[in-house]
Design a protein that fits this description.
Blueprint (H helix, E strand, L loop, with lengths): L8 H4 L8 E4 L9 H10 L4 E4 L11 H5 L3 E6 L6 H9 L3 E4 L2 H13 L3 E4 L13 E4 L2 E7 L5 E10 L4 E2 L8 H4 L5 E10 L18 E4 L18
Parallel strand pairs: 1-2, 1-8, 2-3, 3-4, 8-10, 10-11
Antiparallel strand pairs: 5-7, 6-7, 8-9
């Protein structure tokens, strides 16, 4: 069995260059690859195209890359929590492609499965469909959406082993699974890196064939995007 373990984030990001297209797992701030994002900020790579459900917040997640002007284009579904994102978009500094959330997930899944494109009814008759092929199936119109092409996919899992097998925990099992194998190189950071054979095969969410590099992450903050509490009754 191929050993895909690397010692640290620096080895995991070997080959990262300016102008590349990256995928980032996570939803809001849940399950984001914190170590990978921090190292990309440190490396200072720029002119990046980033595919992610959202753009983090102003001082965390992909918001850190936005602060350093490292992102040229964002391909996202929801970006409402980031003031810097809004400023750059409205000023024309940032190219933005907004995609229906289900379409974003399926374009990742298509890339993962090796399909060149999918047909979806989402967006037909709107600006989303402008300039795209449309086709009727059983009396309903669909829009052709191409699978994503990315250089690296950065995902975060709860547990993994040296073969790249992954288990996600709770809501962190969001966009992470569909981005595994959807890029040329998938880098997985995990909270727990266990010996081969320790993971129950019936519990594995993503088999190692979809992962090229895996390492044990560190110093996870796991911030909460919006915390809502109610006043304790007197």
């Amino acid at each position: 069995m191929i050993n895909k373990k690397v010692d640290d984030i620096k080895q995991a990001l070997v080959g990262v260059k300016n102008g590349m297209t990256f995928m980032f797992g996570g939803f809001g701030l849940s399950g984001i690859p914190e170590n990978a994002i921090a190292e990309l900020v440190h490396l200072g790579v720029k002119d990046l195209t980033c595919i992610s459900n959202n753009a983090g917040v102003d001082n965390f997640g992909l918001g850190l890359l936005l602060q350093k002007r490292q992102i040229k284009k964002m391909i996202s579904s929801y970006v409402g929590e980031n003031d810097e994102f809004e400023r750059q978009m409205l000023s024309g500094e940032l190219d933005v492609e907004l995609i229906p959330q289900g379409t974003l997930a399926e374009r990742c899944r298509a890339a993962q499965a090796g399909f060149p494109a999918i047909y979806t009814p989402a967006g037909y008759g709107t600006e989303v469909a402008e300039g795209k092929e449309t086709r009727e199936f059983d009396g309903k119109m669909y829009v052709l959406e191409r699978a994503f092409k990315a250089d690296f996919a950065f995902v975060k899992a709860w547990k993994g082993d040296a073969a790249g097998n992954l288990i996600f925990k709770g809501t962190a099992r969001n966009f992470n699974p569909v981005m595994c194998g959807a890029a040329t190189i998938t880098v997985a950071e995990v909270e727990e890196l266990v010996p081969l054979g320790e993971l129950d095969p019936n519990q594995i969410h993503i088999p190692g064939i979809f992962v090229q590099r895996i390492f044990k992450g560190a110093h996870y903050e796991k911030r909460i995007e919006q915390r809502t509490v109610r006043t304790k009754a007197v």
